[in-house]
Task: inverse folding
């Protein structure tokens, strides 16, 4: 029997009570498929599946006469895998090193040429190709590249959870770990967004897995106490009736077992009304991690260039309104640096999403050049400046940095424009979506017809830049971005939590009174044309709307105006006594728990209280 070692090394994710490790789903899926064939099961045995970023010497010490080492190769384990594989080859020169996964070039020759210690690679979908590879290996006919075009048939496909023992062994041998896992209900993507490699890697057509297999896999997940599940379909919900059955089953098992504790999905990009309905079902049992209404950009020229089409603005506004109506947590994703996006269109785009009703949360991602994406072929066409960064993640056993290729400038944005655009996202995220000024901005928009763009440009110039604390926070983040994106020193390594991610909101809450005083001083001048008592009421409402680290109780407050109806229901301003109940969506036990929830429940509206009118005089 040949000794086989599997490698799907992942980061330990999260902090505090939210710390978890990912199960090695991909490599287990591929091996479970090939192991159903007699020529594989009778000639190969799994010695161990390595899934943590351990120190190399610890891994090497455990290897026992490895005949075959299979590496599942991703962006987040690229450097780690290659360095470890090279060391394995040096210590065990007869070991066959095999790589497969999204980080392997579609032009496989380039990968093998750059990494001569790798004996063979699997390009694109892995199951069928690996089966051919292992048969060739047994016959001493191993080839360097396997790229079988025939796709695996999901019908009858064995389950890595139920039919294989790799994942069960990992869970049983590592008690006390909080686990996260992926799960597929279909495979394939019909879209061809140029910045993404999903469509090309899955060859477009969507194929469904057996529904019975999906249900049995979910049973395994809940029976093993898996806390977080990501449904790894490119378009979950595309088969609505079937996917509703899956969602209903998830809810049924949640009520029976309390597992998992969170579910996320990459939702289907069309038929959003139906998708909101599915997300609502999960929301009602506290499983919705956030319904995605991704736009990537609001600039039509940009969307054309990346072969993506967003829904009309009126439709997008309807979707936000429906999420609010059904109390479904949602967020909107943007990518900074796409073709034809300028600093001006970026500012306008973020504010356009807010104008449409995106008050819950935005996620901003850097444009990264993925090896197998269409965009990788357009870098020269648009004069993009791309920089390779070495980035680490905190709290890992091994601190081997990973390399990323981020866009930092182009013919559409200078380096400074790029930084300014990141900082505009910083302003919108911190002040609006973390709710420090959301109440003020909504009132200005609904009662005074001041656009969100004008509101936040004034806030930036006349509040943030002129206030000592806020300007310090702004400049700290701006300098971090410059240090990161403009780094030219070879070998510099950055901690990812403190680079392109905004500074932790906990610093704002530690200085809550000072931050609110600065905002209030600016707001009094901004609303100077209104009656003083009305301005005071609006400021008081906005401050009460914001979550308070030192007070997790729900409470009622009296107002002399219908501020909530103006802000959140587009009502006309009236003056009479209104009593509102301000209710936290989540509770916390201490400062540490508050900090964790502030970061990990942001997409669920942690910072924004729910407001209900109790009565009026």
Result:
């Amino acid at each position: 029997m040949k000794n086989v070692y599997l490698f799907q090394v992942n980061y330990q994710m999260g902090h505090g009570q939210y710390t978890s490790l990912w199960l090695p789903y991909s490599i287990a899926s591929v091996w479970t498929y090939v192991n159903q064939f007699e020529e594989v099961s009778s000639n190969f045995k799994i010695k161990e599946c390595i899934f943590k970023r351990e120190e190399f010497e610890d891994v090497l010490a455990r290897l026992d006469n490895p005949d075959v080492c299979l590496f599942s190769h991703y962006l987040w384990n690229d450097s780690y895998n290659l360095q470890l594989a090279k060391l394995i080859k040096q210590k065990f020169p007869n070991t066959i090193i095999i790589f497969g996964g999204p980080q392997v070039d579609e032009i496989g020759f380039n990968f093998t040429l750059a990494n001569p210690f790798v004996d063979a690679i699997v390009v694109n979908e892995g199951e069928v190709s690996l089966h051919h590879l292992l048969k060739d290996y047994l016959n001493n006919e191993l080839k360097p590249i396997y790229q079988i075009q025939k796709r695996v048939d999901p019908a009858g496909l064995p389950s890595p959870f139920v039919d294989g023992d790799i994942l069960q062994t990992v869970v049983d041998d590592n008690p006390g770990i909080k686990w996260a896992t992926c799960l597929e209900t279909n495979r394939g993507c019909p879209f061809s967004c140029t910045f993404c490699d999903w469509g090309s890697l899955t060859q477009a057509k969507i194929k469904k897995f057996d529904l019975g297999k999906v249900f049995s896999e979910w049973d395994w997940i809940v029976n093993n106490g898996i806390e977080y599940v990501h449904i790894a379909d490119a378009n979950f919900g595309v088969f609505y009736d079937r996917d509703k059955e899956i969602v209903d089953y998830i809810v049924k098992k949640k009520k029976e077992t309390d597992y998992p504790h969170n579910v996320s999905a990459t939702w289907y990009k069309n038929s959003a009304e139906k998708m909101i309905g599915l997300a609502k079902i999960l929301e009602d049992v506290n499983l919705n991690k956030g319904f995605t209404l991704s736009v990537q950009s609001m600039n039509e020229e940009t969307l054309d260039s990346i072969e993506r089409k967003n829904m009309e603005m009126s439709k997008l506004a309807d979707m936000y309104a429906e999420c609010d109506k059904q109390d479904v947590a949602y967020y909107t994703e943007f990518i900074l640096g796409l073709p034809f996006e300028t600093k001006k269109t970026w500012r306008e785009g973020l504010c356009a999403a807010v104008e449409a009703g995106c008050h819950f949360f935005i996620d901003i991602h850097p444009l990264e050049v993925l090896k197998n994406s269409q965009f990788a072929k357009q870098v020269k066409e648009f004069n993009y400046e791309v920089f390779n960064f070495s980035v680490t993640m905190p709290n890992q056993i091994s601190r081997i940095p990973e390399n990323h290729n981020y866009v930092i400038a182009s013919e559409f944005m200078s380096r400074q424009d790029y930084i300014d655009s990141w900082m505009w996202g910083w302003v919108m995220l911190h002040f609006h979506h973390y709710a420090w000024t959301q109440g003020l901005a909504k009132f200005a928009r609904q009662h005074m017809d001041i656009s969100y763009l004008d509101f936040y440009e004034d806030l930036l110039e006349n509040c943030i830049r002129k206030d000592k604390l806020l300007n310090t926070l702004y400049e700290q983040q701006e300098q971090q971005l410059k240090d990161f994106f403009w780094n030219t020193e070879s070998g510099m390594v950055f901690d990812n939590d403190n680079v392109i991610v905004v500074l932790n909101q906990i610093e704002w809450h530690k200085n809550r009174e000072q931050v609110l005083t600065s905002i209030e001083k600016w707001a009094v001048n901004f609303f100077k044309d209104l009656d003083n008592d009305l301005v005071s009421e609006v400021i008081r409402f906005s401050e009460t709307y914001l979550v308070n680290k030192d007070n997790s109780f729900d409470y009622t407050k009296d107002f002399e105006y219908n501020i909530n109806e103006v802000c959140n229901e587009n009502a006309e301003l009236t003056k009479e006594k209104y009593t509102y109940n301000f209710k936290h969506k989540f509770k916390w036990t201490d400062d540490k728990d508050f900090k964790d929830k502030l970061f990990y429940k942001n997409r669920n509206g942690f910072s924004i209280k729910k407001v209900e009118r109790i009565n009026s005089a």
About this structure: Residues 405 and 443 are 41 Å apart (CA to CA). Residues 496-501 have pLDDT under 50 and may be disordered. The first strand starts at residue 2 and ends at 10.
